[in-house]
Amino acid sequence: MTTTKHPAIQMENDHIVQAYKRPPFVLTHGKGMTLYDADGKAYQDWVAGIAVNALGYGDPGLIETIQTAAAGLIHTSNLYYTEPQAALAARLCELSFADRVFFCNSGAEAVEGAIKFTRRYHYDREDAVRTEIVCFTNAFHGRTFGALSLTPKEKYQKPFSPLMPGVIVVEHNNIDAADAAITEKTAAVIIEPVQGEGGIRPASNEFLQALRRFCDERGALLIFDQIQCGMGRTGTLWSSEPSGVTPDLQTLAKPLAGGLPIGAILATENVASHIHPGDHGTTFGGGPLITTVAKYVLNRIAEPAFLENVRETGAYLKERLQELNSPLIKEVRGRGLMVGMELTIDVTPIIEKGYEHGLLLVNAGADTIRFVPPLIAQKSDVDVLLERLDAILTKVS
């Protein structure tokens, strides 16, 4: 921990809206899996900007791409064609179920857009009675009003009520409950194939397959929120791949541009054909600099060898965490480099002790530590983590 108070901390306290609780140090630079603070202390990073910095820090190819892109057009708005936006959309369609893409600036924006696309789809089909959206316990879809309405956690929702009506919350992984909830009034079902903020909880293949079947039978759209769990995080490009299920809409964001802000809605032609000029828009979404960088990141992550490393390192991480001998550990779950360790206590003291031991950790709910490191993590990085984590758990217990 830092021994002196950096002036940036005081400036932040004086001038920034206090919506975040931060540890008392200032990060200045990084390399690979390691971040450094203003005092030169090193931290092994198992947060990655909350599952964003897929290529870690100081990646030469990413830096070169940003520099090259910055020498060209940075912004034109969506009033005009630019080649990088079109090229990224084409590549995303090539690598997914989608026929068309809409670009925005964040995950929450992508979810809001998916809600609007759903409403417009049913409106065009003269089926406006469909206004209900089914979501699931422990879900997290964002903090703007529509996305927040689909995030059924009282501490997030209560201060901002009333929220968007027509939200039906169903028990996660409960096929019978989903069967009863999805009706002729259902506009869409939205689900994270692996829940992030809700505690790293994978949906079973059978559950995703049942949701696809119910939506097809009853005329609802299926939306996959892959903002955190997509883009290679679970060891396949899309976390839903093991189920064999494809959605009608899919939201992306976090790692897509390697740390620069971008969001995307992937859509089938069946849905996208109902979106007309003026129905939705964004000033900054899909700008040429961002989409140039995002195409580079997407191509890196989509490489078979890159995904193989995520699978191997992720399996090793899960195995080593399960070997930890601590009475505090309740369960280890997840896939690839998206792993949660549920404890019998609030994890805040462990995260705070992590700073002392040179670890950046993040929670997923009060009782779960979420491991979402840069996707370049290696087994040797896992060994360092486990040595330090073992010491922390021993102290805390």
Share of β-strand residues: 15-25%
**Uncertain stretches:** none
Strand order of the largest sheet: 4-12-11-10-7-5-6
Rough outline: globular
Tell me, rounded to a whole number, the average pLDDT: 97
For this structure, what is the CATH class of the largest domain? Alpha Beta
Extended strand count: 17
What is this structure's SSE topology?
Blueprint: H1 7-15, E1 27-31, E2 34-37, E3 42-45, H2 48-51, H3 60-70, H4 83-94, E4 100-104, H5 107-124, E5 132-136, H6 145-149, H7 154-157, E6 167-170, H8 175-181, E7 186-191, E8 194-195, E9 201-202, H9 205-218, E10 221-225, E11 249-252, E12 263-267, H10 269-272, H11 288-302, H12 304-323, E13 329-335, E14 338-343, H13 348-356, E15 359-360, E16 362-363, E17 368-371, H14 379-396
Helix pairs in contact: 3-11, 4-11, 12-14, 13-14
